Amino acid sequence: MRIALDPGPRDGPARVQLLADDGAPAGPVEVLADLAAVAALEREHAPRWVFARPRAYRRLLEAGVEVARAHDVELVEGLVVAAAGRYGQPHGLAAAVARLEGREPEPDPPDAGDGPPGLFEAGPAGDELAGVVAVHAAQQRALAAAGPAMRLLAAAESAGALVAEEMTAHGLPWRADVHDRLLTDLLGPRPVLGGRPPKLAALAEAVTAAFGGRPVNPDSPAEVLRAFARAGHELETTRSWELRRVDHPAVEPLLAYKELARLHAAHGWSWLRSWVREGRFRPEYVVGGVVSGRWASRGGGALQIPRAVRAAVRADPGRRLVVADAAQLEPRVLAALSGDHALAPGEEDLYTALAAREFGGDRAKAKLALLSAMYGQTSGGAGALLAGLRRRFPAALAYLEDAARAGEEGRLVRSHLGRTCPPARPGHEQPAAARARGRFTRNFVVQATAAEWALVLLAELRQRLRAAGSPARLVFFQHDEVMLHSPAEAAAATAEAVHDAAATAGRRLFDTPVRFPMQVRIVDGYDER
DNA sequence: TGGCATCGCGCC
DNA sequence: AAAGGGCGCGATGCCA
Predict the structure, then answer these.
(1) CA of A238 to C1' of B7 (A)
(2) CA atom of A379 to C1′ atom of C16, Å
(3) Is the CB of A271 under 7 A from strand C?
(4) Per-residue pLDDT at A126
């Protein structure tokens, strides 16, 4: 059973309508006294809730209501539009309704699916619930025609919306005092009036001194290039890997400066002030925000938390962090996709196993070879390594090369479950553009399939925790890694649920002997191995 | 002053 | 011969 839901304006009534599984209305529109009434319907019917966008669920969470299953109309519309070769065209509810009615869709409103509260409530008066019902019915027809893989993808994407909103609501445990201590250790005391912290100021002066005393702003690539040019070093860029090859006394303080300045600018005291409240970091996740189906995030750089500050992520007293990451997910996905099972023979470290068989025990070399194959890299010695891979894993390499060729020829590629890449843009016939698109589609098939494996893992894990009445909460998700905040006594069971969910995710996507092991650690701090 | 492109680097 | 996928974000530098 399905129930369409319009949570309504913030101070107004919510409305619901019972639907058959094909999306046809199975009852009248009903007005709910409040969102808490949703909880009663959830207990009574355990339906799949059909709503317009993730923020609808945010409203439920604010009212203290969690649900088990959902169909997110705007997220699914994105999948359906892309599958028709029109990635990037409007997929908000209003646009979907317009298409159904044979009108030209308007561009999506800014931040479709997210954005500040009130944006949509204040939007043009329309029957939101009727739109949700009509578009959902059309999507059910499209998904039925596309097959079970697309239906699984739609369900997983929608489950992702539930997880994302719940993770934001719970927040990532973040110890501001620990973070502050880390910053002070690395940068010196926080400057009271802004400006550079002591250690950064000292390094900037050291750079200037190394260039003979003429002031050089190390934050300005242009100035740094000019300074090196005056010293007789013509550089292309000021990237650290290029600087490292230069023999000049300014290099060492400059590299040290860049590393610390990065920390200060991106995750320093102002970040802490902006993003951590009452011991929690609450980023906003953007489900399906990346073409490959990976999540993006808005605000706080949630998916780029540097290792240097991870010690600040600490479990509350009496709790533990259960941190799990999928081991070598992308090459395992490639093995399953291509049927080249020899590439991923078991649960052991895939690169080590590969190194032993092909690369003289050199794990780094094996990893570089595989990543190069999946990214389309051939420089830096990668080309020579590819030959060994191609000889040993012809099916896996052929899979990637087919995807690359499809891209170069302007065709579409799809993930295992049917997420579709954007169409080629005009100009893709130019050789350089064609090769770039080939690298993109080569990577897309793997990255997008890995992303949907991870989505299914999340959905399965969430379902297990709910079924068991677990007190553990999902608090972080980053491409191939999940973190839970769990009472200490439940941590072992939580870890088991992760392993179980991972195995199930593999089975739901593939009929394959390839395994998808998770490395799980139960720790107090995110920095602990 | 604000918008925008570029650079550079953090994460996967 | 050369060809590295996907992001977010802050600082700089240029422009209106």
Answers:
(1) 9
(2) 42
(3) yes
(4) 66
Asked if the structure places residue A212 within a domain, the reply is yes
Beta strand extents in A291-423 (DSSP E only): 296-298, 319-326
In a domain, A245, yes or no: yes
Tell me whether residue A277 is in a domain. Answer: no
Assess whether A8 and A138 both reside in one domain: yes
A17 touches strand B (CB under 7 A): no
C-beta neighbour count of A320 within 10 angstroms? 23
Residue-wise burial string across A367-381, b where 16 or more C-beta atoms lie within 10 A, e elsewhere: bbbbebbbbbbeeee
Nucleotides of B under 7 A from a protein CB: 7-12
Instruction: Give the mean pLDDT of chain A.
Output: 92
For the CA of A137 and the C1' of B2, the distance in angstroms is 44
Instruction: Please tell me the predicted confidence (pLDDT) of residue A124.
Output: 45
Neighbouring CB atoms inside 10 A of A222's CB total 9
Q: pTM of the entire structure?
A: 0.94
User: Which of the residue ranges A288-302, A334-348, A452-466, A490-504 would you say has the lowest mean pLDDT?
Assistant: A288-302
Q: Is the CB of A217 under 7 A from strand C?
A: yes
pLDDT bucket at A425, cuts 50 / 70 / 90? confident
Distances (CA, A) of A8 to A18, A52, A114, A119, A197: 17, 11, 16, 12, 48
Nucleotide nearest to A222 (CA to C1'): C12
Q: How far is the CA of A285 from the C1' of C9 (A)?
A: 15
**Number of neighbours of residue A238 by Cβ within 10 angstroms:** 18
- Is any atom of strand C within 7 angstroms of residue A225's beta carbon? no
Contacting residues 96-135/A vs strand C (CB within 7 A): none
- A423 and A293 inside one domain: no
In a domain, A156, yes or no: no
Q: Is the distance between the Cβ of A480 and the closest atom of strand B smaller than 7 Å?
A: yes
For strand C, is any atom closer than 7 Å to the CB of A304?
Answer: yes
Q: How many domains does chain A have?
A: 4
Interval A275-316: pLDDT, tens = 999 999 999 899 998 999 999 988 888 888 999 999 999 999
Q: What is the DSSP letter of A382?
A: H
